[in-house]
Design a protein that fits this description.
single chain; about 260 residues; alpha/beta; Glycerol-3-phosphate (1)-acyltransferase; 7-stranded mixed beta sheet; 9 helices; Plipid/glycerol_acylTrfase; 1-acyl-sn-glycerol-3-phosphate acyltransferase
């Protein structure tokens, strides 16, 4: 049954994406940029609905009151699965993502993200890339947009030792905006590099923003501390409430450490 539900969900998920992208393309490109964002947000809501109704995986969000009501800010979630890239989109006003420039070359998808003025990065050009990213990020955030940054840079399995990249600290310093940490464990239900989707329930915990003005090293340490503390708490809670979930080795090890007081 799990395999059949996963196959059905994956089929419907990608069909939903492709059909919407094709059918709604004329409306998307005729609408003003921000109004056109309603189309990908509707897709995200429908994908969350499929995730719950077909795969059996639901979620709730804690801490929505911690999202700044106005102005630009950096939204900094843990990154474990593909779900992280779209699942919270309906709750964000006008987000802008930093993404690999190769994604801009994908037909239709690349055109969609280009219209939303996403920020492409050439990961091979090391030296000048941060200056270019900062310039573009500042331009977008001056218009009140929210910059989405995954502090660890790439997807990490649940419970894995943290590997935060210092780039977010530089952006915090240079952009002078609040950073909103987010802890969650969707990777237990939508594992990276796997097609299986597990039923159950998880929480997304949006933490109080870290306001601008801290020393860079102090900010970096605080971001890791508050995010990992909340992440550990949610790991224990999520596993306790979903005892059927098969744990990846990283999650099993971290759970044992936490239970031993580590």
């Amino acid at each position: 049954m799990l395999t059949l539900r996963s196959i059905l969900f994956n089929t419907l998920f990608y069909a939903n994406l492709i059909i919407r992208m094709i059918v709604l393309t004329p409306a998307y490109f005729l609408l003003p940029r921000k109004k056109a964002y309603a189309i990908p947000k509707a897709w995200a809501r429908s994908s969350n609905w499929l995730f719950e109704k077909v795969a059996g995986a639901s979620f709730e969000i804690e801490g929505l009151e911690n999202i700044p009501k106005s102005g630009g800010y950096i939204f900094a979630p843990k990154h474990q699965s593909f779900w992280d890239t779209f699942g919270l989109l309906p709750w964000l006003d006008d987000p802008v993502y930093i993404l690999k420039r190769e994604l801009m070359w994908i037909p239709l998808f690349g055109w969609y993200v280009l219209k939303q003025r996403m920020i492409p990065v050439n990961r091979g050009a090391r030296g000048k890339v941060m200056l270019a990213v900062l310039k573009r990020a500042r331009e977008e955030m001056e218009n009140g947009r929210q910059l989405i940054i995954y502090p660890e840079g790439t997807r990490r399995p649940p419970g894995a030792p943290p590997e935060y990249k210092f780039g977010i600290a530089r952006m915090y310093r240079d952009l002078g905006v609040p950073v909103v940490p987010v802890a969650m464990h969707p990777g237990l239900f939508w594992p990276r590099r796997k097609s299986v989707r597990y039923p159950g329930h998880f929480k997304v915990r949006i933490l109080p923003p870290i306001m601008p003005g801290m020393e860079t090293d102090a900010f970096f340490a605080k971001l890791m501390e508050v995010t990992e503390k909340a992440s550990d708490e949610l790991l224990v809670e999520t596993i306790r409430n979903n005892p059927h979930i098969p744990l990846p080795p990283t999650a099993a090890r971290r759970l044992a450490e936490l239970q031993a007081g580590g």
